[in-house]
Amino acid sequence: MGNKISVTVDSVVFCKVNNTFKVLLIQRKNEPFKDMWALPGGFVEVGEDLETAAKRELLEETGVVVQSMEQVQAFGKPGRDPRGHTISIAFLSRIFNEEELEPSDDAKDAKWMEIEKLPDEKLAFDHDEIINVAQQFL
Amino acid sequence: MGNKISVTVDSVVFCKVNNTFKVLLIQRKNEPFKDMWALPGGFVEVGEDLETAAKRELLEETGVVVQSMEQVQAFGKPGRDPRGHTISIAFLSRIFNEEELEPSDDAKDAKWMEIEKLPDEKLAFDHDEIINVAQQFL
């Protein structure tokens, strides 16, 4: 059994400060899209629940701990990842404080970005689209 | 790159006849869950779009053609497939007629099942749960 499709999770974490929505981004340490900004996320481990994987990657890359996440949807368009066919399950979390960030692991940096300033920044993969879809949940 | 997680799609096709909702089920020709009833679905091919895969599997197993589907969500709980860690992206489609079915490929039979009679029938995998979640879209 099996196919050569990989599975990742990506997290859209929103916070609201002074009536401004911000989203949590990391700067990628590695290829593909090295140095570009992206959503925190990564590969699901075999035997790992999807939401657990999303929380783990978020913690590893940003230091942020969230209690619960809701699923946005799966993004699976062929070509969205130059490494090969990769399906990402996107999760959403809302937090009330602009938490301090501790970038680590696959992230060389992390920041809170105002949503309205996002168009200035081309994100890695299809993460612009993922954020657009997640915003419909706000 | 890569992990040993497999990706499938499953389709929840509802039709409404005389104020009764029915869901399309197939009887599995092969293990696991051989002979049990299940949602039409199967493995996504490398390079294939998720919705395209869902329509292809639906056609192969039941003869039913649908124009569009909407995504329900991904189901990825470890243990949901005895063959190994398998993540299924569920899709939903509503059709207006109880179309004639032509079971083929991995399906030895197919039928329209009244939703309210579903509890009498233990379905393969976590397909009961998938149908429950999809019903929230009705």
TrEMBL record, chains A, B:
Gene Ontology molecular function: any one: hydrolase activity
Superkingdom classification of source: Bacteria
This protein's record includes keyword Hydrolase: yes
Record bears the keyword Translocase: no
Family annotation (InterPro entries): Nudix_hydrolase, NUDIX_hydrolase-like_dom_sf, NUDIX_hydrolase_CS, NUDIX_hydrolase_dom
Keyword terms: Hydrolase
Start and end residues of each Nudix hydrolase domain: 4-138
SUPFAM superfamilies reported for this sequence: Nudix
Similarity comment: Belongs to the Nudix hydrolase family.
Record protein name field: NUDIX hydrolase
Species, as recorded: Christiangramia sabulilitoris
